[in-house]
Amino acid sequence: MGFDTPQPLPLDVAEAVARAGTRLDEFISRWLWYSHITSTNDVAALLADAGAEEGVVVAADAQSAGRGRLGRSWASPAGAGIYATVILRPKAETVPLLTLAAGVAIAEGIEAATGLAPSVKWPNDIVVANSSASTGGRKLAGILAEAGTSTSGSLWVAVGFGINLMPASYPPDVAPRAASLETELGRSVDRGLVLVECLAALSVRYRALRGGQGASVVSAWRARAASMFGRHVEWQVDGRTQRGIARDIDENGALVVNADSATFRVISGEVRWV
């Protein structure tokens, strides 16, 4: 299957989990940690298909086939980042906002653990927004949410996230766009603390969605994305490249773009920030 036998939690992670206690809520019951894995989302999907309960956390020291949206690879060098996926069993109506909720939560977790306040970029990036490397900032972390139906017929979503902790030898096409916590902060970071704070924040945001408080997630995402609004974007419509200016997101998480005196809702696909 491309991964080893699960290992005991690393000491730094185990200690952080113990300190967090009930703050982790559903993410405290079952953890699977691997020294090497193809993709944490791959294993989480297999477990979810087989009926694994909500709250299972799959994490690894390294991935050989980590991926992001649209099949892009996610560089996952050993020891250089956090690579994790959680299994959720949400109500269908909450699914459209899950990626945004996870993005807000990862940004909040990073800030709680390190003091660095990253921004979010539609639809699934956590970025250092003030970087001069690119218009949309350098990527610090990313989200990949994949859904399916288990053998019992119940909906599941595997919410994966990768966070760059320290500088690494990224592929040439990735390196100019990548940021890491240690580079931005100029010091080492506590991996266990970052992971646990992200999961604790995700628990809070997920409970908000389940409680019908999607508007609070959208509001928090807008606040984190303030530096992105007003930027030019490109996207595909019926095979043609459309250009416009990102203005907002709507209550369902779609990107709202102004172009040619018209307003468009971008709900999926490739969006390039220029």
Draw up the topology in text.
Blueprint: H1 11-20, E1 31-34, H2 40-49, E2 57-60, E3 81-88, H3 98-114, E4 119-121, E5 125-128, E6 138-149, E7 155-164, H4 181-185, H5 191-210, H6 214-224, E8 232-237, E9 240-249, E10 255-259, E11 262-266, E12 271-273
Parallel strand pairs: 1-2
Antiparallel strand pairs: 2-3, 3-7, 4-5, 5-6, 6-7, 8-9, 8-12, 9-10, 10-11
Q: What does the model show?
A:
- By secondary structure, the chain is an alpha+beta fold.
- It has two domains: 11-224, BirA Bifunctional Protein, domain 2 (2-Layer Sandwich), CATH 3.30.930; 232-273, SH3 type barrels, CATH 2.30.30.100.
- It is 27% helix and 27% strand.
- It has helices at residues 11-20, 40-49, 98-114, 181-185, 191-210, 214-224, and strands at residues 31-34, 57-60, 81-88, 119-121, 125-128, 138-149, 155-164, 232-237, 240-249, 255-259, 262-266, 271-273.
- Strands 1-2-3-7-6-5-4 form a seven-stranded mixed beta sheet, sandwiched between helices.
- It is globular and about 55 Å long.
- The N and C termini lie far apart (39 Å).
- The mean pLDDT is 87.
For the record, the CATH class of the largest domain is Alpha Beta
Roughly how many Å is the radius of gyration?
Answer: 18 Å
The biggest sheet amounts to: 7 strands, mixed
**SSE order in H/E notation?**
HEHEEHEEEEHHHEEEEE
User: What is the third-level CATH name, the topology of the largest domain?
Assistant: BirA Bifunctional Protein, domain 2
Beta-strand percentage range: 25-35%
The secondary structure category is alpha+beta
**CATH H-level superfamily title of the largest domain:** Bira Bifunctional Protein, Domain 2
